[in-house]
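Q: Joint fold for the lines below.
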Amino acid sequence: MKRINFASSLRGGRSSRRSNPLADGRLLRRSLRSLLATTVVVLLAACAPVDLAAPIPTFDTGMDPNAWAQVPAGEFYFGQNEDIESTEAYEIMVTDVTVAQYVEFLNQAFADGHVKVDGDQVVGFYPGDEFHGVKHEIEINAGDWIFVPLNDPASRFTFVRADGAAFVAKTGWENHPMTNVTWFGAWGYCEYNESSLPTKIQWEKAARGTDARPFPWGWEIARENANFYASRDPFEDMSSFGSRTSPVGFYNGDAYDGFQTANSASPYGLYDMAGDVWQWIGDVTEGFSDRFMRGGSKDTYDMDLRVWVRNSAPPMYYSPGVGFRCVR
Amino acid sequence: MKDRFQYLFGSTKGLILVAIAMIGIVTAIWGMLSGPMAEMGVRDVVIKLLGMDIVQAEREGRIIILYHSIAMAIIAIETYMVTGLLKMKPFFKTAINAIITVGYILTMIFGMGFAYFGHNWAFHGLYIFGLSLIFFAGVLLCIALWPWNKEYYVTDKDYAHTKSGLDLERTAFFATAVTTVISALFGAIPGSYFGNGFEVFLAENVIRLPEKTVLEYSVIGHLHIMLALIGIMITLIIGRWLNFKGNWHKVAMPLMILGTLVLNLGVWGVVTPLEPIAHMIIYVGATPSMFAALLLLIWDWNKLIQDGTAHLQKPSFGQKIAALVRDPLKFGPTWQMLFMNFTTSGIGIFMAIRLEEIFRIWPAREERIELTGHWHVLSAIIATIILLYFGDMNGFKGKLRQWYGWSIIVLSDIAFGAVTIFEMKRLFITEAEQQPLVNGLMYAIDFGLGMLLVILAILLVYRLTDLFKKKGRWTDELDHELAQEVNQ
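A: Joint structure:
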């Protein structure tokens, strides 16, 4: 292809005199071309595949994922603007539902027909929401809805059609929070276990206690408190797969292979109420099909770990950064 | 000393230099408080070093004051450009420039002092007083621009005007100024309400909530229209600087007036019973405004090509392209306006069209990335257009002009392009697999914006050293007005 020499084109012909590359703009054009080429190379290199099955460090945090914490009845400060709200007494799980717990549920529910495999997903019955026809509202009718996807490389369990257990937790991920689970899947787990997803009021009181603190453990956040974006925990590699979840109750004041954590329990003794994974909230809002999430995650900056910050998504959404816990 | 003070605070170019320096300082320092500086630990060092008092619960309030501090300096720069380019009584020019200068400096210094260095309420009072002064300067600007003053009527057939001689370009400036002042109130009233209750929110955090109060709608409308009006005003300013005229001008100016008015009516309509169709009105208003900007672009590129190939009998396509890009400071502003369509307007329209199928399927935080990304890019594009014009004001010629202009265009476009890919990444990559791409995009964004700041720093150091010279460039600029430098 014939190259156009812009400078000489402008002069109406090829220049015969010897010229200074800086003076006639050649250096500028070369520099700009190099800069653009470098940018393209950097972006192409950035498309390198990620090893989603990379080994994960395993640590026993000593947490009992079946433990529940008591939250007494009474008033508390709700939201960034510290409105006064109150709750009855209730119990909430000390940690998020783990992969091992959810796999156990899937196996039981699969065996007794509460859930079934439909194509590349596990589905279960949900009685539906009242539809109001509000702008952007999605119609959620009674029927089978996705609980978890199958064969998603980011999922922490596998599905094998064999005798006995059909669902198996991936090695090393058993005590990590269950992720890649939809709101329906979280709702289904809690219902199956005679509990429910927390309302926003219940969730925030459990995280915050009765003072106005922005974080479950207090007023400031440090890397030792929680798993958030670039928090340099043992599970992340920002040059490759980025942030990954930490085992439930990891930030309990223990040291793990030289990584010292701070005891980051909430006033009622809950762990991971900030960071690690967003947690589904049970509220169904009239005219709004999205479900809310709280707590921030391994993928968000520290500002999103403040107790009042919310996220939302349609109930069929799932992500490696979203989990849940139950109340009763 | 007196002469230098007179230059910095009494001449148009000096005032613009001071405002750009103020913005540069704020951007350089406060840019270190967010990613990627935050995760590298730089934020903690800056906070300690400067003795900032950062309260977690007050982040939104701090950011709102930061945005206003920078935006007020941009408003001041545009005002200086308007008073420097358009005819008006000297009293108005002096009064407007003086009041808005005191206003934005008070706003910036005491606003940032209040937000980041403990809550001295006297500072907050001075911050509000500064904003009030800027509002008052805006009212004076509207009076000064009054286009029905016969003194400002035009008869030159090259410029858009009515049969009676009403200057339609001046009317467009006037309409933009008036609607800006009204739209400022649109934010000030709910701001006072929320402020007195010490409640704040960022629009991008409530965008999905189905129920919003009238005052929340008002704040959301305010921030959208103010940025749109800053964009419209810089388009008019660039048009005046380039001496936009001819048939394109005659079509563009009525469209600009119509677009500005309809756009504002649509935005104000969100707090009226018109709310259900407010977005439609906004689209109807935005279309003529953007079309007018397109006409400016066509005219400008055509003129650059004609001027650059005037000595050739039958220029080839390559020669035309070479002529078009010969002067980056004249080509750059309209190119950046075109580029904006890929990074801002295009994204916004795509989101609006595919809202139900794509964006509302993603979590709200993903949608927030698009929202914050697209208006950060729009703001930054406006800043680069100002910097390109500022390069011309500095009289850059030859190699310096080429390097300065092309560096701003290419570096900023690399950064803005990367931001755009970052915003839309969920269309083509999953959360689990995104990190290497995110890293690459972050390198591009940080390199582009970082180098832009370095160029700005070099420019400001050059201007600072120039101030120490007895016969520096500043002496030439002391009495030089922007209107004298309009393209002929």
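Q: Anything notable?
A: The mean pLDDT of chain A is 89. Helices of chain A lie at 6-11, 26-45, 99-111, 183-192, 200-208.
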